[in-house]
Amino acid sequence: MEDCIFCKIIRNEIPSTTVYEDDYVKAFLDISQVTPGHTLMVPKVHVADIFEYDEKLAAEIFARIPIIAKAIKASDPKIAGMNIINNNGALAYQSVFHSHIHFIPRYTKDDDFAIRFGDHTDQYTPAQLQTIADNIKANLEV
């Protein structure tokens, strides 16, 4: 196991407020609490990001997402929605390089959290989209 902050939390060397733990994951409240109930779920094995997952690890980790999400939603009747986010790489806003999934409960539109998706529909022709899709398909490992 590595020496990152999440590995230390998994080993209980750094205190955390745990909401779920099993052989594969630990889920705990994010210290920043972007919104009340903001939870992080981390694999117990150190992997930097999604690109280091194999199929077995992915199956185990991602199977726990609905379990955690449903528990968070059930914990507060004011929760109207939830963002579930996994950032991979510094450019994608990953700040701790131990894979983790954010569960961010949403209460109102004005809850100090936002995601912006740019609309570039008019910038791609069907042929350009097909080229992008073909390049992705050529790199699938199934």
UniProtKB/TrEMBL annotation:
Residue ranges of the motif Histidine triad motif: 98-102
Entry's Gene Ontology molecular function annotations: methyltransferase activity
Record-annotated HIT domain positions: 5-113
Top-level EC class as recorded in UniProt: transferase
KW Oxidoreductase (keyword) present: no
GO BP terms: methylation
Domain of life, source organism: Bacteria
EC number: 2.1.1.-
Alphabetic keyword roster: Methyltransferase, Transferase
Keyword Transcription: no
InterPro entries, A to Z: HINT, Histidine_triad_CS, Histidine_triad_HIT, HIT-like, HIT-like_sf
Protein name: HIT family protein
Species of provenance: Agrilactobacillus yilanensis
